[in-house]
Specification:
The structure holds 2 protein chains of 2 kinds.
Chain A lengths: L29 H7 L7 H17 L5 H7 L4 H7 L4 H8 L10
Chain B lengths: L5 E6 L3 H13 L5 E7 L3 E3 L18 E3 L8 E5 L2 E5 L4 E4 L4 E3 L2 E4 L3 E3 L16 E2 L4 H12 L4 E7 L9 H15 L6 E6 L9 H13 L3 E3 L4 E5 L4 E4 L4 E3 L2 E5 L2 E3 L1 H5 L10 E2 L13 E3 L4 E2 L6 H19 L12 E8 L2 E7 L8 E3 L5 E3 L4 H18 L28
Parallel strand pairs in B: 1-2, 1-9, 2-5, 9-21, 11-18, 12-13, 12-18, 13-14, 20-22
Antiparallel strand pairs in B: 3-4, 6-7, 7-8, 10-19, 15-16, 16-17, 23-24, 25-26
Helix pairs in contact in B: 1-6
Classes of the chains: A mainly alpha, B alpha/beta.
Chain lengths: 105, 421
């Protein structure tokens, strides 16, 4: 066996690495997406945040900012940065297959 | 006839509440609608001038007027804080114990500053070596601190978006460069602009232009800095990812949120107490008889006075349509228009909406003020606007040349439609 079939086969990303078509995302893709962000194994706490991002996106049409995540996900902003040191909202959005959180108008 | 008199309650008597009340009063006869406006204090601050107070360019006493004095005859004004809105019963509970029943409710209570949400910000050093210019007290205190500041490191920091007038902290940096230059101390002072964004501003073309201006003025920019802690005693900002920016004087734009009563009103607001609404009709998601205007709304538009002004026309028309049982008009296009003060008696002007970012050219048409370009004319325009605000915008008169929808004529790179839409 030389290669495993990638779950990301055919998935389109924008230039910053966010999903172009969020509807194509499945949970099976997460470990592979995480490795692209330098996360070898996705912890339960990280899963909590990823699922929360996904739920918020499906309900409201946009991913939450770090501050809203900290207020509503049950994980504090400080912990969020421990879970995703490179930027919780951005990295979790990539893993959740949703567009870049807007937050900035 | 009294059975048909509608009750319109407007919460907040700032820019949005005042212009909405005055426009509605002109639209409806008194026996058609009773209009009640509520605010917790009687101080209406002309907020654009807060930027000028720290540099001694505006007198704090001259930018505040009575809220109730800006309302037309035939509008009831109640001075009270708001406890909560009971959406199911169409009723507002005021902190003074009275209740107001409504047929239509307009939320115009703006955004409030929340310095206490950032660790250390409201603690040691607050109003000593850490300031904000986003309220009258802070802007006045900062004026004294700046006057005696002649060497060291000035840091201008935006904690997180959304904030009111996203260009204001940039303008503050430009004016600080001018102010220290005039005083002959600029070469002894470092200025650093610290932002959570990945550039100077939120919109790419303007961001590039404004970023270049910062560079030309010798202002250092630190991007993607999410402020986790402000240490007045140690003189440093610390980001959540552990980076530090030292300062001798910090000017911080604190976190913003919606008014606290929104959080006590079940179903009305989001996690930050802003009120989600349809971005084109301004009808609240919470209920068809609630409308939102200005900074109080959770919309993908700037929190700026010009946006509030442009929303007014659509909002008033939709209140009329709602009461007449007609379909709402999706009239608001996200139009924002900001004079950006750049120091040395110059300013630039940016104009954009939901779909079109700030472009170079002229406003409002081919012959007009230069866009995305520094000029003295724009600076004069900015200064003149205070008169227009009190005498044209708040009374709800149409301001000549400034339409609600974004004009395309005169813009380079925009799809020209010959005239304003």
């Amino acid at each position: 066996m030389t290669t495993l079939l990638s779950h990301l086969e055919g998935v389109e990303f924008d230039e910053e690495g966010f999903f172009v078509e969020p509807a194509r995302w499945t949970e099976e893709m997460v470990p592979e997406l995480a490795r692209r962000e330098g996360i070898d194994e996705v912890t339960d706490a990280q899963w909590t945040v990823i699922r929360f991002m996904r739920k918020e996106f499906l309900e409201k049409g946009a991913g939450p900012t770090v501050r809203v995540l900290g207020k509503s996900s049950g994980v504090s902003v400080r912990e969020l940065y421990q879970l995703f040191p490179k930027g919780p909202a951005k990295v979790a959005a990539k893993l959740a297959g949703i567009p870049k959180p807007r937050g900035c108008i | 006839m009294h059975r048909t008199q509608k009750r319109i309650v407007i919460l907040g008597a700032g820019t949005g509440g005042t212009l909405t009340a005055n426009r509605l009063r002109r639209l409806f006869q008194r026996d058609e609608a009773k209009i009640v406006v509520v605010d917790q204090d009687d101080l209406h601050v002309y907020q654009p001038s807060l930027l000028f107070v720290p540099f001694g360019l505006a007198d704090p006493d001259k930018i505040v007027r009575s809220r109730s004095d800006q309302l037309r005859a035939g509008i009831d004004y109640i001075g009270s804080a708001i406890d909560r809105v009971d959406i199911a019963d169409n009723r507002v509970h005021l902190s003074n114990g009275t209740t107001l029943d409504y047929d239509v409710l307009v939320i115009a209570t703006g955004a409030v500053l929340a310095p206490e949400e950032t660790e250390g910000l409201a603690g040691v050093g607050w109003l000593d070596n850490v300031f904000t210019f986003y309220d009258l007290e802070g802007a006045s205190a900062l004026q004294k601190a700046l006057a005696s500041f002649d060497r060291g490191h000035l840091v201008v920091n935006v904690v997180d978006m959304p904030i009111k007038c996203p260009v204001a902290p940039l303008e503050f940096s430009f004016l600080a460069d001018w102010y220290f230059t005039e005083r002959g101390v600029r070469n002894q002072i470092d200025i650093t602009y610290v932002t959570p964004l990945d550039g100077a501003f939120t919109k790419p073309v303007a961001s590039e232009h404004l970023g270049r201006m910062l560079e030309e003025k010798g202002i250092e920019v630190v991007t993607e800095f999410n402020t986790g802690e402000v240490r007045g005693d140690a003189g440093k900002l610390i980001s959540y990812d552990g980076r530090e920016v030292p300062f001798d004087l910090a000017v911080v734009v604190p976190l913003h949120e919606g008014a606290t009563y929104v959080g006590r009103s079940t179903g009305l607001g989001d996690g930050l107490n802003f009120v989600p609404a349809d971005e084109n009709t301004l009808q609240a998601k919470a209920s068809p008889n609630i409308f939102v205007i200005g900074d109080a709304a959770d919309l993908p538009a700037s929190k700026a006075g010009s946006v509030t002004h442009f929303e007014g026309e659509t909002l008033v028309e939709n209140v009329r349509r709602y009461l007449a049982d007609e379909p709402l008009e999706p009239g608001f296009d996200g139009h924002a228009n900001c004079f950006v003060e750049s120091g040395f008696h110059k300013a630039l002007l940016i104009d954009f909406n939901y779909d079109t970012e700030p472009l170079p050219g002229r406003y409002p048409g081919r012959v007009g003020l230069p866009l995305l370009k520094e000029s003295r004319l724009n600076h004069l325009g900015k200064l003149m606007f205070q008169w227009i605000y009190w005498h044209g915008l708040l009374p709800g008169r149409d301001v000549p040349g400034i339409g609600a929808t974004m004009p395309r004529a005169g813009k380079r790179g925009a799809i020209e439609e010959g005239s304003t839409r």
